[in-house]
Amino acid sequence: MGTDDGVSVYFIRHGLTQWNKEKRYLGHSDEPLLPELLYDSRLLKQQLSAQSFNQIFTSDLRRCMETIEYLVPDKPACADPNLREMDFGDWEGKTHHELENDPMYQHWINHWQMSAPPNGENYQPFRRRVRSFLNDILKKDDRRNVLVVTHGGVIREVMNGFIPELSFADSKIPHGKGVRMLFNQSGGDWKCSSWSVVPIVEKENS
Length: 206
Hints:
Strands 3-2-4-1-5-6 form a 6-stranded mixed β-sheet. By secondary structure, it is of the alpha/beta class. It has a single domain, classed as Rossmann fold. The protein has helices spanning 18-21, 42-49, 62-71, 96-99, 103-110, 123-138, 152-162, and strands at 7-13, 55-58, 78-79, 145-150, 178-186, 189-198. Helix 3 (62-71) links the parallel strand 2 and strand 3. The protein is built from 7 helices and 6 strands. The two termini are 29 Å apart. It holds the Pfam family His_Phos_1. Keywords: Hydrolase. It comes from Thalassobacillus devorans. This is Alpha-ribazole phosphatase.
């Protein structure tokens, strides 16, 4: 829940698509969800329904729109293209195995922060649009508890930017799950004061 001196943001990764299942690069391609797997997110749906959100945001891509319709039906969400995954250009729909012998792909794997897939998106503009979205949320006084349904790369960018002790692997969020981050302002800058994975799974009594 939100607090008087901070902004609570739930970042939820969309549900699974066929390309996700096949481990294909999926950025701006508009793949639908596998609807039979949405039920796996029922605990998250239950926990989110107990929250009162000041605002709900989603990536404008179909897999996120379908996820948020399942999680919080009948609640309006603002679709924002800044919440899209990175655009993988000519590599959309391809697997690592299909690309691993391509010299351009090998260069991108080793220098992903300074290069881009052919006809795709460079990391730096991706980073700027994600930060622009987050900064807009944090500066609004009326937003204390916010829900965001987006993509794995977007969530990783936020987590690695505000939780420096995490490795890149530690910030990988499974499909249909997420992370709650509490942001507080300190010395004019916003910092993440606490975070936790969602949904919260209660331990069974032994």
